[in-house]
Amino acid sequence: MSVKVSISVTTYNQEKYIEQTLESLLMQIANFDFEILINDDASSDKSQDIIRQYEEKYPAIIKPIYQRENQYSQGKEVHYTFNYTRAQGKYIAYCDGDDYWTDPLKLQKQFDFMESHSHVSACVHAGKAVNEKGTRILWTQRADQKNTYLNTGKVISSQGMFASNSLFMRNYFTGDYKVPDWFHEAKITDYPLYLILSTKGDLYYMDDIMCSFRVASNGSFTQVVLNDPNRKKTHLYEMIDLLESFNQATNSLYEKEISDQIKHNLYDYVSTDINVIKSNPEEFQQLYDLVPLKMKMKLNARYYVPGAVRFLKKVKEPIVMVFKPKEEFFIES
Fold this sequence. Notes:
Spore Coat Polysaccharide Biosynthesis Protein SpsA, Chain A; transferase; 14 helices; 10-stranded mixed β-sheet; alpha/beta; single chain
């Protein structure tokens, strides 16, 4: 079997989701061979038992590693360390163990595009955010409302702009290639990879919904980081460190885009939790001084006229619904 595409999957205590994930990968209709590389990060539930059942059924396709100790907690980027470096494919596709693909032709579409566009380093697409059970669509994640190329500047501002399980990239991880130090130092997983890929060629966005990703599932970013004020604060500074490291690595070539994104991150942090202002006014003042005037005005309105902000929140969704169904709402970065 000559593998053309390697699918990288990581799991940790995702017994409720992993079967749906694997079925969505195995349903792919393609005119090439693919392998599914799984790194289970020492799950304590039945995730490994489920994976073993699939390994026995599809031994030529499913190739797991069963960790005895959790590697992510030791600071390792598990997709890269345990899957990318053993990938046999010309291309690598990405999917976490709680997400799934919805289009049986997803791989074929991305493969065909990459084969005919050698200047493109990776291909991504639209996806649907769903609740933990996968029964309700929360929103549709789009990088644009049309097919388009994404250069490095756009990728810098792309945080959350497309689903990680939409990624289909060239395999740059064979031979002597080593990822830069700042990639290993970053505490975030997929975003640093997008930055690396953007320096090797454009990313291409397909405005085609071909995957779903769960929000607030067990072990998800929403559950672990966004719902924990301390982790959320730590994540903010990790993102700033990452962007500053990337700026240095690229000799300040994208300094303006990076500066704008840092300001955007600062604003998002203090605006989404007004308790930040009340609990630590000195720290807030330092962050407040860094954001542009327009953002300061929004923060002032949020703090001094909270009733108006609540009113705007109430009327925002009905206004949007007049023009566009909720699941098709365009998420802007």
